[in-house]
Amino acid sequence: MSNWEDYVRRVEPYVPGEQPKKEHMIKLNTNENPYPPAPGVVKALREMNTDLLRRYPQPDCKILVDAIAEFYGVKSEQVFVGVGSDDVLAMIFLTFFNDAKPVIFPDITYSFYDVWAEMLRIPYETKALDEDFLIKKEDYYGENGGVIFPNPNAPTGILMPLSEIEDIIAHNRDVIVVVDEAYIDFGGESALPLIEKYDNLLVVQTFSKSRSLAGMRIGYVMGNEKLIRYLNDVKYSFNSYTMNQTALILGAEAVKDRAYFEETCRKVIETREWTKKELHKLGFSFGDSKSNFIFAKHASVPAEDIFEALKKEDIYVRHFSKERISNYLRISIGTKEEMQTMIGFLQNFLAEG
Amino acid sequence: MSNWEDYVRRVEPYVPGEQPKKEHMIKLNTNENPYPPAPGVVKALREMNTDLLRRYPQPDCKILVDAIAEFYGVKSEQVFVGVGSDDVLAMIFLTFFNDAKPVIFPDITYSFYDVWAEMLRIPYETKALDEDFLIKKEDYYGENGGVIFPNPNAPTGILMPLSEIEDIIAHNRDVIVVVDEAYIDFGGESALPLIEKYDNLLVVQTFSKSRSLAGMRIGYVMGNEKLIRYLNDVKYSFNSYTMNQTALILGAEAVKDRAYFEETCRKVIETREWTKKELHKLGFSFGDSKSNFIFAKHASVPAEDIFEALKKEDIYVRHFSKERISNYLRISIGTKEEMQTMIGFLQNFLAEG
């Protein structure tokens, strides 16, 4: 018999989160934006020149890169785009984390960092968050092969002040420091201005949350021109045409509408703050989320019981069975109406219990 | 000063082919299809439910995988899709080529195989095509860490008979054999039926050529269910959501229209055969291409001179400076009118010379 199986790269089979498809469900489990993308995006889709479909897209993604650079006031040479921030982050791991020393990141954090490290055989080490789920900056001062953490952190939603982030960068000038800002637009302060001061800093963002385009898979990273050039070299060698024509066109359109973007973020933040107050009244506790979700535990009722009760009502939130956080629920911020429905149900459910 | 640059993964900076954007150019340099995708594709784009834009796409790409499986009469569990066949092929290298023995492929072939091997630090060895640019099957019988070749081969366009491919597979039951069939629909015989007989065979195809969707970045591979499961495990670990909503919807729509697909391929084949006759009259020689391009050299005029002369007329073909093939031009098959224009110009140019 054949033995090709001996040489298969074995990975922990990752199971993507539930994608229920019920008509009237309330989907608060994947941190999607409850509002549609900017009106110009749908218009661009409907009016798209369909002769582009048979043509290869721009390998340099110029239309999208230029739009992002313009929005943030950086040079186009300081922007790299990919198929969601997962693609961008995986390319960063592949390009920059080649040292024998371990890459370091928090123990409770975005669940893909250790997966990429294992897949690409990169050594890594995790640093425990403190008892309030805060990152302890001093943990990141020692020798290492690179540093990565989200800000706000996932799934805690807790923001780190920019001064502490700068301390971490300043202590790590010999390696690449990656700040993963998927949720920065919901009240956080971006590390972006620091890319002019530190040539080893990469700031990663995404269109999946604040730009309402999870379905189009667009992520990007900003940093100094040399870092971006290295990323492009690796990307061109891997797959020159990753961003399809619709992603380029709709992405560029989404980033142009600053007023709509700000208005959408403001609404999500307002609803989040209202939800925090209501959850607090119901006996939940949580860190001060600056993201589009709340990571909460209840004083007496186990997270799993609440998760199951909500699910029976077709209200989907996220529960992780991982140590330290297994009694927490991650609740994405939907529309005000959706959150009212959820709070209304919890009022009854917790009163009964 | 910081020394993070010591740990950057260095790659040969790949330069993607020219993408000129002149109004009236004739673009015969990237093997795109001259005809638009099936009419249903544009309709699906115009009528797409735009609420999907803010939602993550199906991680299992079910709508597209099912449509491909239905077209080819295989099970959905035998189909894996990716962001163009480059993404699919890179995932195959990452998943299956982990042996210390070298992966083998032809010296003249698709230019990404050695790039992926180098990037992923996979040992490889090339086998020289014979003097007529044919693959010598016996070269692939020795011990190795995997086998990959395109059929028809690129950039020669020459097809290998299925019986010889089966010989190669049968001699390599302990490793994965990948047949890269990007151009198979233009007159070749696919190795697809052999996936039922050989559990170590992967057949890769793409929507970029015969399906007229280069702009949407859709590739796929078919093989036995175990192979596809391993690929999905690696893909989910790398980036769970690679195919965006429009790629899933338009791809599924494109594959449904068998009549349009067959008609388009037939037209490309007819134009190719007409072009062959005309090129032959003009003093060109070439292998018997079964792809949507012709790889030709002229009896007396250097390829580079013809390339430059065509370019001045805004007719773009492809020229590779690589050894053994530097006196050849790769000419994609456009519409009959485009080929007539090119032939007309060459008649004058070569008569003058």
Automatic annotation (TrEMBL), chains A, B:
Q: Which UniProt keywords apply?
A: Amino-acid biosynthesis, Aminotransferase, Histidine biosynthesis, Pyridoxal phosphate, Transferase
The question of whether GTP-binding is a record keyword is answered with no
EC code: 2.6.1.9
> Which cofactors?
pyridoxal 5'-phosphate
- Gene Ontology molecular-function annotations: histidinol-phosphate transaminase activity; pyridoxal phosphate binding
Please verify whether the record's keywords include Amino-acid biosynthesis. yes
By its UniProt entry, which PANTHER family does this protein fall under? HISTIDINOL-PHOSPHATE AMINOTRANSFERASE, HISTIDINOL-PHOSPHATE AMINOTRANSFERASE 2
Q: How does it assemble?
A: Homodimer.
Write down what this protein is called: Histidinol-phosphate aminotransferase
Report the source organism.
Answer: Roseburia intestinalis L1-82
